[in-house]
Each structure stands twice: as structure tokens, then as C-alpha cells.
Write a structure and sequence with these properties.
Helix content is 32%, strand content 28%. The protein contains 3 helices and 4 strands, in the order βαββααβ. Strands 2-3-1-4 form a 4-stranded antiparallel beta sheet. A hairpin with an 8-residue loop joins β2 and β3. α1 runs antiparallel to α3.
């Protein structure tokens, strides 16, 4: 399997306090479908919202994004639709999204 054909998981986290504005309903019912509709054509296969229980060291929300492969991820993030995705963030929160890539643990 080539590197290009390995699925890529990206996590987008929102860090803040419980009192910070974060509209879960808009996030789940508007933003995530928008992301899927705009980036799906590039190879985004799924998005999933996670909301930590209790005090999670300031983590308000996490989005798991699964891309078909590295090429798909790079195409989505560099697409003409990305500014629309980013502009939509202001509708549901004032928090800044942080993005990181998950790498599977190597088996022995």
C-alpha cells in the first residue's frame, strides 16, 4: 500500500472554557454537513463531532475527519472552498480551531 492510498485522520479541536460560545447545534447540523458537502468531492469520507464529558483540560469539541488519503487531504485544505469552511466557524464559536493529524501506532 502506498503512502498516497493510506487513509488520513485529521482532528480539529476547540479549546476554551465552558463559558465560551460554542453552538453545538449549529456545529453538528450546519457546519459539519457544509464541510462534508464542500470537501467530499476531494476525498473527505466522513466527519464526526465529539464532545468531551466533564472537564477535559479545556477541550470544548473535537471533530474527526477521515480523508481517503494524503492527496485527498491536501486537495481539500488547498481548495477554493476552504475559505468558505473557515468563514463558517464564526457562526458557531469565537474559539480558534486547532488541527492535527493522527498517526497510527506501528505494530511490532
Amino acid at each position: 500500500m502506498t503512502t498516497a492510498s493510506v487513509p488520513v485522520q485529521i482532528y480539529v479541536t476547540y479549546q476554551g472554557a465552558a463559558s465560551d460560545r460554542f453552538d453545538r447545534d449549529l456545529y453538528v447540523n450546519r457546519h459539519l454537513p457544509l464541510v462534508m458537502s464542500l470537501w467530499g468531492k476531494y476525498g473527505l469520507q466522513s466527519v464526526r463531532a465529539l464532545f468531551p464529558a466533564g472537564d477535559a483540560d479545556g477541550t470544548v469539541a473535537v471533530c474527526e475527519c477521515l480523508f481517503r488519503d494524503e492527496v485527498a487531504m491536501e486537495a481539500a485544505f488547498s481548495s477554493a472552498e476552504t475559505p468558505e469552511v473557515m468563514a463558517d466557524v464564526a457562526l458557531f464559536t469565537d474559539l480558534t480551531p486547532n488541527r492535527f493529524r493522527a498517526v497510527p501506532l506501528k505494530s511490532n
